Amino acid sequence: MKAAVIADKGLEIRDVPAPRPKAGEVLVRVRACGINRADLHMAAGHRHGPLGGVGAVAGMEFAGEVMEVGKGVGAFKPGDRVMCSGSAAFAEQAVADGGRTYPVPDGLSFEQAAALPIALQTMHDAIITNGAFKPGYAVLIQGASSGVGLMGMQIAKAKGARLVIGTSTNPERRARLKEYGADLALDSRDPGWVGEVLKATGDGVDIVVDMVSGYVANQNLEATRVLGRIVAIGRLGGMKGEFDFDLHSRKRIWFIGASFRTRSIEEIREICRRAREDLWDDLLAGRLRMPLDRTFPLEEVSAALAHAKANAHFGKIVLTV
Question: What is the CATH architecture of 119-257?
């Protein structure tokens, strides 16, 4: 089968053996794959937790039809339309753990479905679980114009947030944030953005989901209320930055790091179960949606990654297989 394999200099389309499902897994005829920022990291030769490395098939999420199920998988059967998160997604066939596999809702294309799994589970875990969300909370999403960020704003709004704030440093993308749940759209490079948050909330937001880090670390502390929570899931603005430990202590802020790279399969299955249980009605009702920026055929995966690296997209980039 054809697959995008990590080579010394990026990704190469190669013929590789088709995978077989083990117990607890499903084998999928892949129709579309979502591109995530971690794919850029791995294509450049870096590992992403246990994923990546020269010779590995790239990709972390996909959608298609079930071809075969392993022992112990009772929720799916051959022919079912599914969307999955996992590894080795950029290929004509891929396997996924049954606990990381979701049915594709009626009316949703494979391209749309392939853009959803990682965003749904990442943001449900960040906002609802680690953020300890309650209806009426004010939520700030740093880096909100990414696919994951857009999903985070919609989840917060669907679950009853009183105020959703999103940031983007790009004026065109920032202007579109209100289409996806933002009540207030701000530029995190603007020195006055914290003042705008405090003006809108009175005493700060209840939850910050931070995909920027770096230069916004102390401003996040200023924008968060006493006993609020900051959930750090990305570092688009830098791996390191200044941190006001005294302000953090005085505000008694919960600062939580969240990553899938160090989680066990049992933990990830539970995250997926919670996301499906809590978000499925919202997904079926159309309250959660993902804009597709561009689609590329699998053979043009390098061009798709270059488009992602340029950081000019809004929503998700998808490969078709």
Answer: 3-Layer(aba) Sandwich (3.40)
How does pLDDT run across 210-240, given as a tens digit for each residue?
A: 999 999 999 999 999 999 999 999 887 888 8
Place of tokens 């947030």: 161
- Map out the domains of the chain as residue ranges: 2-116+290-320, 119-257
Q: Among 247, 133, 121, which residue's Cα sits nearest to residue 194?
A: 247
Three-class DSSP labels, the chain: CEEEEEECCEEEEEECCCCCCCCCEEEEEEEEEECCHHHHHHHCCCCECCECCCCCECCCEEEEEEEEECCCCCCCCCCCEEEEECCCCCECEEEEEHHHEEECCCCCCHHHHHCCHHHHHHHHHHHHHHCCCCCCCEEEEECCCEHHHHHHHHHHHHCCCCEEEEECCCHHHHCCHHHHCCCEEECCCCCCHHHHHHHHHCCCEEEEEECCCHHHHHHHHHHEEEEEEEEECCCCCCCCCCCCHHHHHHHCCEEEECCCCCCCHHHHHHHHHHHHHHHHHHHHCCCCCCCEEEEEEHHHHHHHHHHHHCCCCCEEEEEEC
C-alpha to C-alpha distances, 220 to 130, 205, 212, nearest whole angstrom: 16, 9, 10
Percentage above 70 pLDDT, the chain: 100
Query: What pTM was estimated for this model as a whole?
Result: 0.95
For domain 2-116+290-320, the question of CATH label 3.90.226.10 is answered with: no
60 and 94 Cβ atoms separated by less than 8 Å: no
Q: How far is CA 6 from the centre of its chain?
A: 21
